[in-house]
């Protein structure tokens, strides 16, 4: 109850605070036109001779407010009609040959100079859409929430670039279908524009940004003059077809599928996104590792529908989209419930997504509303009796309905309160779940302090059981000036569980954190910027009230004027009681005091050859346990079209007391060594900004070896008593996985693309942990390889273009 009261007091107190809006914000009055310009990068249309020019950009990196020199001035013009907003940008350069223009595919900027425009159609200081065009013509777009950029967000818009002896030029058309804005006669939008001059390591912005206070998005200028917009119907269709040929272990399968994604503008503010018969066959492979711990491995989302425009649904971290289409909840039970003389001939490890939709938008009063729904198909395990030949089925996951509802109110240009509810309903007598979270993120009047927190209630409903849990977070931090600090608290009771649609690997905690830092905002000496931090944490169990861990440390980050970055950290940690490694509630294993040091360097990516190196060493003072982690990533840019990055990773952990098995009433532990090597390559060759070849390769090898004659029982005090135990089965593991993707991607029309993909994968896991890397690799190649070739074609259809064509 203490956490709930803190949240309520801070919310009431903060509701009286107002943000002092920047009185010096720049304003551009846009003009309405009747004849749109031709988007060809040539700024010779008649309208560009009539609309006003805005210039006078100022530096944001590395300096603070310095005016752009005349030989690098930037001149911008904007106009609009009932279809779109148009932007013309002239980016002058005294030496055009130095303009960096690496060819990349959409949403990848790399070492290319670019022009950027942010449009915040609600002028709320937080939610805006970013559009970027590079000097090579590549487009990038993102949804912004504060300073978080979501480049999975993709909309259809037009741009072209040209270049001459005076610099380079950009022409952009942003249709209203790519934006959401309030329904009112007169619009006033927040706007920011920026120009990155990569070869000079300088960034200039249109409206001045005070880096020492608040967030960058709170310093937008104003775009006024928009009135009486009569936008067309916002309806876009993305039909697709895909074909697959899969060969594995002597069997070849052919598959063909078709489906469609749909975007419909319910009104100017709200959009419906829907996927019908979705196909995720070409999603990137997961970085699977040998998982020896008590928790599931967490993967990033690679499916576009679940990453695009999800900023509302991810508030509060209650939505882990990989739950949808994941392993059926009864997958493991199917194996345990196999009868005598039965074999499992089918037990799918993933559920099929039938369809999904999301509705999201924001009212003219700043209220964001989001609704998400997804339905997955029933999944069954099939058993066959080896004596009679008869088969039976068992439902491992019934039809399941996943829902999210979000309300997010922005106020004072810099603050918000949010309410989010997630719900999972499974057909029949299965487990259901419901979670509700309340969040606030509030700044004071001077924008110098931030108060944020969250209170979450989880509820699990299953036959004969109804569990309700609670968790809370509270953080107060200084957000202004060179010296900053903050304190935070996290709490969860022992029944808190959001894992039906979210991800929470632990509960039953009562944790405290603090941090202080010093940073610069203008270059000093050889440094463009640097930051020094001190931090600490104290972790406790909620029930019983036991200390788990106490640690403290410091970190350092710096970047020189030549874009060479380096940093590191040093930590001293007390004893750690791990309540999850034993796999039985209430039991723990205790690890001794330790110290860790981390160091890293990153060279200037503007050069053809660059590199990243990271090193971590942790030593336990009262035992022989030690951890070493090394990562090296050299990269080479052969020319503006061909780029390659190689990564090597080595991980070693020795003498770790680790879980082996449970033999009731005893928990068996052993002394384990683990070694891992990871090799990966990412390379791309781009013919232009619309066509390119991409290679992605990863090989991960890991072994876990338990020392002989060092097994024992875990005692109640958290220590392991060696007793010469001999495990019934070999606990050692040799894990090896190989993935290779090679693709050709062609964006043949706006919003339309074709992808031809070849995929090769091999996997092996056995007990041969004594093998070295090369022998394990030879052993891997003895396993059957999966070869997959697929072609996917997506075509963008704009309702208005079809209507005009038919009318014509």
From TrEMBL:
Domain of life the protein comes from: Bacteria
Cross-referenced InterPro entries: DUF5916
Protein name as annotated: Uncharacterized protein
């Amino acid at each position: 109850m203490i956490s709930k009261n803190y949240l309520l007091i801070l919310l009431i107190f903060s509701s009286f605070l107002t943000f002092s809006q920047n009185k010096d914000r720049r304003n551009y009055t846009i003009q309405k036109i009747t004849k749109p310009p031709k988007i060809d990068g040539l700024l010779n249309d008649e309208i560009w001779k009539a609309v006003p020019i805005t210039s006078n950009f100022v530096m944001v990196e590395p300096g603070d407010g310095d005016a752009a020199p005349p030989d690098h001035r930037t001149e911008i013009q904007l106009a609009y009609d009932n279809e779109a907003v148009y932007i013309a940008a002239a980016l002058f350069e005294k030496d055009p040959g130095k303009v960096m223009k690496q060819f990349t595919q959409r949403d990848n900027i790399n070492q290319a100079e670019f022009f950027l425009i942010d449009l915040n159609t609600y002028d709320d200081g937080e939610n805006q859409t970013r559009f970027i065009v590079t000097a090579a013509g590549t487009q990038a777009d993102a949804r912004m929430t504060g300073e978080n950029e979501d480049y999975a967000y993709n909309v259809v818009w037009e741009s072209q670039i040209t270049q001459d002896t005076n610099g380079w030029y950009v022409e952009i058309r942003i249709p209203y279908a790519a934006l959401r804005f309030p329904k009112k006669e007169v619009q006033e939008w927040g706007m920011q524009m920026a120009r990155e001059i990569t070869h000079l390591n300088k960034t200039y912005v249109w409206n001045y940004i005070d880096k020492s206070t608040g967030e960058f998005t709170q310093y937008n200028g104003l775009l006024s003059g928009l009135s009486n917009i009569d936008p067309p119907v916002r309806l876009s269709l993305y039909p697709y077809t895909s074909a697959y040929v899969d060969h594995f272990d002597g069997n070849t399968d052919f598959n063909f599928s078709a489906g469609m994604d749909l975007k419909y503008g319910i009104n100017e503010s709200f959009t419906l996104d829907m996927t019908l018969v979705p196909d995720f066959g070409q999603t990137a492979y997961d970085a699977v590792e040998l998982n020896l711990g008590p928790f599931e491995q967490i993967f990033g989302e690679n499916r576009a529908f679940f990453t695009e425009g999800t900023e509302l649904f991810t508030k509060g971290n209650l939505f882990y989209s990989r739950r949808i289409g994941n392993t059926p909840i009864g997958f493991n039970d199917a194996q345990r419930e196999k009868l005598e003389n039965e074999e499992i001939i089918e037990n799918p490890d993933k559920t099929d997504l039938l369809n999904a939709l999301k509705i999201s938008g924001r009212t003219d009063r700043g209220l964001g509303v989001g609704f998400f729904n997804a339905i997955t198909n029933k999944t069954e395990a099939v058993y066959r009796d080896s004596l009679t030949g008869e088969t039976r089925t068992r439902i491992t996951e019934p039809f399941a309905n996943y829902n999210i509802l979000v309300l997010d109110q922005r106020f004072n240009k810099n603050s918000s309160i949010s309410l989010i509810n997630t719900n999972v309903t499974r057909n029949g007598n299965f487990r259901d779940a419901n979670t509700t979270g309340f969040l606030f993120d509030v700044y004071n009047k001077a924008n110098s302090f931030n108060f944020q927190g969250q209170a979450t209630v989880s509820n699990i409903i299953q036959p004969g059981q109804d569990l309700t849990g609670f968790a809370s977070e509270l953080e107060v931090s200084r957000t202004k000036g060179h010296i900053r600090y903050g304190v935070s608290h996290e709490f969860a009771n022992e029944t808190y569980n959001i894992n039906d649609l979210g991800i929470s690997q632990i509960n039953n905690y009562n944790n405290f954190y603090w941090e202080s830092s010093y940073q610069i905002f203008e270059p000093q000496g050889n440094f463009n910027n640097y930051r020094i931090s001190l931090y600490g944490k104290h972790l406790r169990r909620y029930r019983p009230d036991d200390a788990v861990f106490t640690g403290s440390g410091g970190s350092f980050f710096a970047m020189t004027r030549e874009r060479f970055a380096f940093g590191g950290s040093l930590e001293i940690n007390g004893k750690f009681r791990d309540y999850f490694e034993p796999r039985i509630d209430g039991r723990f294993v205790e690890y001794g005091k330790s110290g860790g040091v981390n160091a890293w360097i990153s060279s200037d990516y503007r050069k053809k050859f660059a590199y990243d190196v990271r090193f971590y060493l942790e030593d336990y003072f009262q035992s022989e346990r030690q951890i070493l982690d090394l990562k090296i990533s050299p990269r080479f840019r052969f020319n503006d079209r061909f780029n390659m990055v190689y990564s090597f990773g080595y991980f070693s952990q020795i003498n770790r007391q680790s879980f082996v098995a449970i033999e009731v009433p005893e928990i068996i532990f052993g002394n384990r060594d683990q070694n891992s090597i990871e090799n990966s390559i990412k390379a791309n060759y781009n013919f232009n900004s619309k066509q390119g070849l991409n290679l992605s390769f990863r090989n991960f090898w890991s072994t876990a070896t338990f020392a002989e004659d060092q097994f024992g029982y875990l005692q109640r005090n958290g220590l392991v008593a060696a007793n010469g135990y001999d495990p019934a089965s070999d606990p050692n593991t040799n894990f090896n996985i190989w993935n290779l993707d090679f693709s050709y991607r062609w964006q043949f029309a706006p919003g339309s693309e074709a992808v031809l993909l070849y995929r090769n994968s091999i996997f092996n896991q056995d007990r041969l942990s004594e093998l070295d890397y090369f022998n394990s690799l030879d052993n891997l190649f003895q396993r059957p390889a999966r070869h997959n070739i697929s072609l996917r074609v997506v075509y963008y259809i704009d309702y208005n273009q079809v209507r005009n064509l038919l009318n014509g």
